[in-house]
Amino acid sequence: MPDARRRRGAEAEALAAAYLKRKGYQILARNYRCRYGEIDLIAIDQGTLVFVEVRAKSSLHFGTPQESVGYKKQQKLREVARYYLANEWRRGSPCRFDVVAVQFDRESGEMKDLEHIENAF
């Protein structure tokens, strides 16, 4: 089961990256890791540095993918972003946090919906 979830997460991240590229984003990093955690995608959108959390679900029984980015997750993402800004990004540019929520069909495994929330938190 963890392998299936990992594959689904990787698929969702690939779909999100392709979607953002079509919108004109430049993807700088995928699965950026540091001692504070991980950020799925880091991109540039018209001069703004964007930290992107990708969430995927195939069932809405416990809420939408968007709802799964709660306060604790947001705090963790902020810590990773602070680390990235201090150690990897030495330019002064605005930044924001986006969420890409991907819903898969439980039966077919195909993508049902993709929602991009800019400046999510």
From TrEMBL:
Pfam families in the record, alphabetically?
UPF0102
Which superkingdom, per the lineage? Bacteria
One annotated GO molecular function: nucleic acid binding
Sorted alphabetically, which SUPFAM superfamilies does this protein's record hold? Restriction endonuclease-like
Gene3D superfamilies in the record, alphabetically? 3.40.1350.10
Could you tell me the keywords of this UniProt record?
Endonuclease, Hydrolase, Nuclease
Report the CDD domains cross-referenced here: PoNe_Nuclease
Instruction: Give the protein family.
Output: Belongs to the UPF0102 family.
NCBIfam families with a match to the protein in the record: PRK12497.1-3, PRK12497.3-3, YraN family protein
**Name of the protein in question:** UPF0102 protein EDD75_1061
